[in-house]
Give the backbone structure.
Amino acid sequence: MKSSVIICFMFISTFILAQVENSKILPAAIQIRTAVLPAPEEDKADAMVYGYDKQGKLVVLREGTNNLVCLCDDPTKEGISVSCYSKKLEPFMARGRELTAQGKNFKEKREIRGEEIASGKIKMPEEPSMMYIFYGTDENYDKTTGDLKDGKFRYVIYTPFATTESTGLPSKPHAPGMPWLMDPGTHRAHIMVGPFN
């Protein structure tokens, strides 16, 4: 009798937890509105958007017709963070999501994608490719409208294998808002612009 009560309690607890997790998944329209916040105004309506279904699985919420792909906020993580990037970066980004789903950590993902880029399995854009990021706190996020108050922008321009010598950029910022080159000389080389010191 005691064991059946425990099993019943565990089942109910699991069910309640699942309902709480599902309640974090916002309606598709709200997810889309939030996901495109980082994008230039003229690109928001036609961007492709990835978001989450009721089971918490990442799915395409809206097919796009322009050059941008936008990612909704991950409801399992603290804070709000959404991004939009050039479709030319999609093979690189999609592979990263696949590896994350497989349980690979940051170092493993970096090594695997580096090898796949070197072998030609993943094609990186030859020209600079843009990524827009907008982030803020849960407290400043309105789940009924999809708006984020007092959010901050960060801009990332992927320039694979660029170096400080080839760009003239420093490898770290020495003034807030200045551009700098992160991961120089690697497949992940990118120009960062944001509220950094």
